[in-house]
Design goal:
CATH superfamily of one domain: Hemimethylated DNA-binding domain
CATH topology of one domain: SH3 type barrels
Distance between the termini: 77 Å
Structural class: alpha+beta
Number of strands: 7
Strand content: 5-15%
Shape: rod-shaped
CATH architecture of one domain: Roll
Number of helices: 6
Oligomer: single chain
Order of helices and strands: HHHEEHEEEHEEH
Largest sheet: 5 strands, antiparallel
Length: 232
């Protein structure tokens, strides 16, 4: 049976307290004992009828139950709505974080997107040893992009207005040979700034993560790297 709330309890109390009050009032309206008794009986019967219709009727309790279920369902729906919103909001935040991380790893030829087919205008390949034309350091290519992919701030610093065209040319990620003492471990450079060399081994702490060996002309890619650059 549904719980009787404060309003229902108040109504019951008022009905019960009304009986003696109605009896006292009836005394002032009756001219004799018989009339007072008759009026009191009618008042008692009317009060009892109202009470039974409100609290002893199955229909009345059914209506209260429907109302209670409706209110409960409304609260439940509101709770579910809040939960769905919270999950959507958290999911959206997670997606944004994930997209941000994915975008970060797509810079500087670090994307794991498979480079196939390989464009014909890409002159150099992963595993080849190169020398920087202007700065003189050597290194090995570990990745390439068909054009510069880097944060806009980096591109603006790297390429002033006079060199804007270089952003649209192939770029290579290089592990710099530590014997050069260059002060940097990696570089990301446009194609025109490097040239190929053979017979030169590179020393770098991350070399084995990318390559399994050196055949005298180029480094042999690890299987995971070969999947990304299948035609190099």
């Amino acid at each position: 049976m549904p719980h009787i709330n404060a309003a229902a309890a108040l109504q019951i109390g008022m009905l019960l307290s009304a009986l003696p009050a109605q009896y006292l009032i009836s005394r002032w309206y009756g001219t004799n004992s018989a009339q007072r008794i008759q009026i009191t009986e009618r008042l008692i019967i009317a009060s009892w009828s109202r009470f039974t219709k409100s609290y002893l009727s199955l229909d009345a309790w059914a209506d209260r139950l429907k109302l209670w279920l409706s209110e409960t369902r409304t609260c439940l729906n509101v709770g579910l709505l809040i939960l769905h919103f919270r999950n959507w909001y958290n999911g959206e935040k997670e997606t944004k974080i994930g997209d941000s991380e994915a975008e970060t790893h797509s810079y500087f030829a670090e994307s794991t997107h498979i480079r196939s087919p390989r464009p014909e205008y890409i002159q150099f390949g992963v595993g080849q040893v190169v020398v920087h034309k202007a700065l003189g350091y050597s290194g090995v290519i570990v990745g390439w992009d068909i054009k510069a992919k880097a944060p806009e701030e980096w591109l603006q610093h790297k390429y002033p207005p006079a060199k804007q065209d270089l952003k649209e040319t192939p770029h290579y990620r290089i592990l710099i040979n530590k014997v050069n003492g260059f002060g940097k471990s990696t570089a990301y450079v446009p194609e025109e700034e490097i040239t190929i060399t053979v017979g030169l081994e590179v020393h770098h702490p991350d070399l084995k993560a990318y390559f399994s060996g050196y055949d005298g002309s180029k480094y042999i890619m690890q299987p995971w790297l070969k999947k990304i650059y299948p035609h190099d």
